[in-house]
Queue: 2 jobs
Job 1
Amino acid sequence: MIRLEHVSKSYTKEGLPALHDVSLQINAGDFAFIVGDSGSGKSTLIKLLLKELEPTAGTITINGRKLNKIRRRQIPKFRRDIGVVFQDFRLLKDRNIYQNVAFAQQVIGESARNIKKNVPKILSQVGLAAKYRSYPRQLSGGEQQRVAIARALINRPKILLADEPTGNLDAKNAWEIMDLLDEINRDGTTVVVVTHNLEIVRAMNKRVIQMQKGVVRDDGADWEDDGPVYRGGQVSTYGSDYFGEQPGLAGEESAADGFFREGPFLNQSGDGGGDED
Amino acid sequence: MRISTFFYTIKQGIVNIWKNKMFSLASVATMTACIFLFGLFYMIVMNFQAMVKDAESGVAVTVLFDHGISEQRIEEIGELIDGRVEVSRYEFISSQEAWDYFRDIYFDGNEKVAESFGADNPLANSASYAVYMNDISMQSALVTYLESVDGVREVKQSATVANTLTDFNRLIGYISAGVILILLCVAIFLISNTIAVGISVRREEIGIMKLIGATDYFVRAPFVVEGIVIGLIGAAIPLGILYVIYGRIVTYVAEKFRFIGGMMSFLTVKEVFHTLLPVALVLGVGIGLIGSRITIRKHLKV
Ligand SMILES: Nc1ncnc2c1ncn2[C@@H]1O[C@H](COP(=O)(O)OP(=O)(O)OP(=O)(O)O)[C@@H](O)[C@H]1O
Ligand SMILES: [Mg+2]
């Protein structure tokens, strides 16, 4: 389970924060999209979840562990439960595709034999079996993206964070990747996908978290008496201005603040420990 | 550590060296020079030490007896000598033996002169004990003691060759220690620089590795391996060279210094390498290890 409580992140002292007072909860086994304009803080959010960045305020809890309580030495172990597809891929330039994916397994100490078995399998799942000896610079953006996806998935993480995993892919490839993520999710992995592809978002009919200028404008949940009900695939409420003109900041912020409800966290706070391993 | 991680680490360390060829080469070259000089000095010191040992085990003290001393008293003196800890062994040399020895050395080629002595032994009164020592520094104490023993006419000390050798050896030891220390610092500096370059080239990669969940250890270990391998290669090359040229050096030195040839006795290459090999390898690995640890500590606070 992923939970953010009043999380803010400022890169610089002056200027607007990249994230402002964000509270969110994504349960174990969920599939959630995060959408929002460029610069609205989506990648920042992902980086906070991986403890690549530290929030300037608020607390983040993942699988029952408060991230600010994780000691330096325990960070690697924490990260191994999380697969990440970075927006800028972050492949190792001096290693070929096979080695890039195998690396994720070497890190966790997987046996050479299993690595030999797993890597070709995942590479063919993302349609790159033929290119395993190529280096990242020899691949197209879409191909690099698929390598990044393969690397994120190979260790069968508990949580998959994908920052624009289909940004460079054509419709057919994008759908193949989305189907793959859906499949992973059905196997029990929590999947969080940042995307600009509203067509896919609507068609997949999953929870949609909308960000705008560093705040959560809609966390995709409607609150019933017995907890949240996620509205699948709905970006329609704000859909028109999501790609369109941005309303003034002041008005938007208050609208977002008004939309967010803190109550449910209290309702569900008992879950926290249950997800710990 | 898992086997696969072990092999991964070794492989990455070697890949690092390969991708960083120029700097690695410079490090290996410095290491080679350093260990070569070390090996050279080591061989000299070893050989001198062996010569000192030889000299020490040579006759140190000759004990001559009072005229007309009884055989029994000679035996008693022998037992006294035997009781001293610094004495390794002693041996009785009769007048006849002394004369034979003397004649061989000094009248070699002048047999006629020697024959003029006829059957008379000019050294009739020179029966003696030759005392061999195991610790040459105790020589003067032993002499003082022996001079006070009843029945001893005179105690002759052998030339202080051994002492001179010991002093000389010590001097060489100091000089080589100094030179080697400087070289060690240079080698460590170069290795740590090489690894610093490798780290800075890989800074981005290291960041990515950490985000995927690599431990500090996993990120660092290949750089340690890099240092150790450079150290090992830098030790193996000079060892090979020294092994090949040792025989030639020995022959050359023995020829050049033939006038003191009797004192020169050289160790075989096997004897020298018996200790030089492990010492040099440990030195190489140590330098590599220290060099890489310094850099990792400084540059890899990932
Ligand atoms: N390293 C950084 N230093 C300073 N400011 C940053 C840094 N990274 C991001 N920002 C700022 O933080 C804000 C949010 O950036 P972020 O990358 O999270 O946006 P995003 O929603 O992922 O956008 P996109 O859809 O274009 O990827 C932006 O205004 C950006 O300029
Ligand atoms: Mg982004």
Job 2
Amino acid sequence: MPKLIKDGAITDSSWHTVSSQTVYEDAFATKAEQLLVPFNMWQEHKAELKASDLEIGVWLDSEDDPYELSHEVGNLPLIAVNFPIFRDGRAFSSAAILRQRLGYTGELRAIGDVLCDQAFYMKKCGINSFELPDSGDADDFIRALSDFTDSYQSTVEIPDPLFRRR
Amino acid sequence: MYIYDAYDKQMLDDRIKQFRNQTARYLDGKLTDEQFLPLRLQNGLYIQRLAPMLRVAIPYGCLSSTQLRKLASIARDYDKGYAHFSTRQNIQYNWPKLEQVPDLLAELAEVEMHAIQTSGNCIRNTTTDQYAGVAVGEIEDSRPWCEIIRQWSTFHPEFAYLPRKFKIAVCGTPNDQAATQVHDIGLYIKKNSDGEIGFQVLVGGGLGRTPVIGVEICDFLPWQHLLTYLDAIMRVYNRYGRRDNKYKARIKILVKALGAEAFKKKVEAEWQNDKDGPATLTEEEVKRCKSFFTDPNYEEDSDSSDIEAAAAKDLLFDHWLERNVASHKQLGYRIVNICLKETGVAPGDVTDGQMEFIADLADKYSFGEVRVTHEQNVVLTDVKHADLYAVYQACQKESLATPFLGLINDIVCCPGGDFCSLANAKSIPIAESIQRRFDDFDKQKDIGDITLNISGCMNACGHHHVGNIGILGVDKKGEEFYQVTLGGSADRETALGKVLGPAFAQEDMPDVVEKIVDVYLENRKDGENFLATYRRIGIDPYKERVYAKAD
Ligand code: SF4
């Protein structure tokens, strides 16, 4: 089971992540009750997925446009943003858009190549749960969430930039 | 100068701790090379041809004498007793040891300095005109705005992993010595008819493999919106900039691909959401930042007749006054340029002793502050006219009084193949061979204003595209050759140089440059400078001369 950190603590994840290569019919093979499906699958099979008994979340790859979830964010219990490789920084913007622009308030999870060295930035962009790769050290990660005491900028976490608070 | 408060200090301490931990994890084998790479780069650390290279930020070129002394002691304690001023108002150490870097950074932090975001695919050190705050006819002092941008760009959580590096320049002076138009974002400070401050915003400028002059996407951005607008540009770039090919990843490629109009539309659509939001600048914040850049206590003074008398007797001093000293907004004061281009020394290199000397000079004669320039020189911004001869004589003793600022031997040159692992060719020896050729100072003076820039590869750290004469090192089947461009300039009328023709061998370079200069000398009219003549007569006469077959 992948290591999950949510709101600053280690927890278990009951969600099953469906990979982007999975064909739709196979997505249900695991019998998991909570499915995190790729954005493309969601787009294609939205009606059926919504009608199923399962809980459905959506994960965005770095090139997916979060604005396309505008009308869905109120209904989704989980949205994830994927880091295909840690240095691909698009997911930071996707996360910020989901929170700031679309007003998403549910669980926002980082998946993929999630490194502790980016934990703080992810948190600032509004990500509140983190699925670590097998090589990831959960304690290191939790510590890294508070690598910095504060930020200069207006962030999802604290919208007032430092200059309005200092 | 900006002075750190408890927040700034905390942020810097947090970063040092973080990087110490990252370095330890790397040395323990817990981080792979690939994972450590962007982390060390964002802390200024390259692995170079011979050793690591650490690039330290000099925010918008401003340094206190205390900071300069620290840079000197670091050069002595962690390096081989010298350092290199780059073309981006940074300073580079060529020989630090990886395991010592966290300690070195801790020492820098003692004087409120750092190497944060001096490298890597993030927002780099913001640069500006070295005469900011003292230039005659200045529209607005750019330094407080640069500081506002520095803070906004430091550890920006959304924009630390961009498609590629990102450089911002701000200019509030009439002459633009910041090469503003060849930056990813160039900001010209303007005043509208009501006297309110705003910015003309250019995007997509840059040198490197595909040199481009920035295009305007906003002709007047009221100052309150500076940061929200920058956020919008960055978000569009972060989301849509190419990541599949590092040579096509800069914002200029995105702007070209979309077209400036479409790019602007995307930015404005994004901006509408944040405009007037919490990141909107407040008057208090601008006032706070401006409070660090007030005028020093200038004495009511006028020019001293002693200086003219000294110049009449000392010819070299007279040259130095003419070339290296610029007018100042304050009566009785001058701006003094210390040219770091002594022949035989790599352009921009300074020793620990020279740094300490300059720090002392600044304390004694210029309110304890210096500036560094993208032309790799150092400036004392506030020298009393009456002190000029004393400053000159002191500089002379340290071999820092070369009186050729802006002349042909004031060569801008990247470290090239002697140090840089990306180089195709050496650049420092080319600079030296040209300097030797033009050693005769009268000849240099006769040639007059000219810029000569040398880069050791396409990355164009020596800004060769915007040199009146540009020299680029290229690799031809494993041999080093040099391509020449003519007609570049980096001022308010920025132009990219045109390629003269096939590249030359290293030993031919002094001859080639001399022939180019001869064509100018023979064709110039009515006090035209090199660039004006080139613009009038075009490239052909230069081509003919340089490639003429010997009889
Ligand atoms: S231009 Fe090329 S050789 Fe010169 S410093 Fe830059 S990367 Fe190195």
